[in-house]
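Dear colleague,

Thank you for sharing your sequence with our group. We've completed the structure prediction you requested, and as agreed, I am returning the results in plain text so they can be pasted directly into your records. Please verify that the sequence below matches your submission; if there's any discrepancy, let me know and we will rerun it promptly.
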Amino acid sequence: MLTQAEYLAIAEQINFPTNAWIDGSYTPAINGGTLATINPATGQEIAQISACDSADVDVAVDKARQAFEAGSWSKLHPSQRKQVMIKFVKLINRNQQELAVMEALESGKPIKDCVSIDVPETIDCIQWHAEAIDKIYDQISPSGDAALGMIVREPIGVVACVLPWNFPMLMAAWKLGPALAAGNSVILKPAEHTSMSCLRLAQLAHEAGVPAGVINVLPGLGETCGQSLGLHDDIDAVSFTGSTEVGRLFLQYSAQSNLKRVVLECGGKNPCIVLNDAERLDEVAEHVVNAVFWNMGENCSSNSRLIVHSAIKEQLMVKVLEKTRDWITGDPMDPRNALGAMISQEHFEKVMQYIEGAKQQGAELILGGNAIELNNGLFIEPTIFDRVTSDMTIAQEEVFGPVLAVMTVNSAAEAVALANDTCYGLAASVFTSNARRAHNVARAIKAGTVSVNCYSEGDMSTPFGGYKSSGFGGRDNSLMAHDQYTETKTIWMDLSTESDSQLD
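Please find the predicted structure tokens below.
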């Protein structure tokens, strides 16, 4: 880890990418429009980024389709695609400090997280899927000797990947890794606040040998660029990570256009259940705090509801409050800080409204609750509310900020019922010393990932996605991620003869 001064020096040397990446080069938006990308920790403009619209979408889709049909990537031998992607990984590794600083500046994320989590996991993701390319086999059906039934995977074609702003580079990798491994052409649409790291990744991929047109990056607004991607008749699939509200729009776009495949990973209101037999409460408290405050709570799998058994609540909360005070909020470029800035003024105001609303509805504020005035940045204190009930807004809606809602129960059954009392079902955690209880509770919770005695989303080998309004259509990570970027084809060959005994 470098010092704050050293990271700021790197920032001064970065040549920020500002134009769209189409067909192997940086290209300004056809309409000449731009969007300001702002450092949320200072309020200062970093750069003006091309604002793409439907005209740019048409060009990018055309180039992506041409590349796909030409077969320069889609028909490349799997081992050759693997080699190119491994080279891509090496280039990311070589430029990891630049990428980490770029992401911290644009998103407000702590530099220590960008350096130790976001960039390494981006590398791990792309390498993992690259290594899987030549290890995924097609199948032969049990059709008997008179026929041959082959079940083969083929790349789906042109894929649009619409990204969130909370993990710009890592979410790009979650989609680029399996989509490229399968042989598709990809159009990335980064969030309007965080485009630069994705633009730089595309350049590095091209340098590694990914052919022109196979990766395209279109920065711009959701209501223009994003909508145009969703409605385009020559896009075969959309993989979306973001809010449930916008996810619904992409389903509408699919229905209004070519019925393109849509895979959604949306929001969450995730529970952390601590039962009365939980052990090592110091460690439990560490997980509780990390689960809600990591990345400023701007995380779809944030455990923003602490559901704790009354028998141990008092003891646990003392430790949670102690641990929370160690999470220092401040300049994201200072590696000593654990919490950075909210992504935008709009989002900052939204989180503060949730805090004020919780007070008005009767929740007990026991820590934080205030904005922090620092360098014109958008900082909010780690905030904890007690005596939260399920009918409160803070218990039902995704705050997406550093806010913990504490709820008290008297049994495991009550905890499960409360955990499932939400329209979401993305992630959950349960803490207990009883293996049978852990298993039963984990099975009873309606969520795509349930971690036991820890806070975790799993790793690259485990699928990630949700139940209910948290999304559907596929999973990120693991070999299952390849399913959303491939079509399954059956090839049936009649091998019968006049006499089955004949060999010639």
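Summary note from our side: Residues 4-266 form a domain with the Aldehyde Dehydrogenase; Chain A, domain 1 fold (CATH 3.40.605.10).

Kind regards,
the structure core
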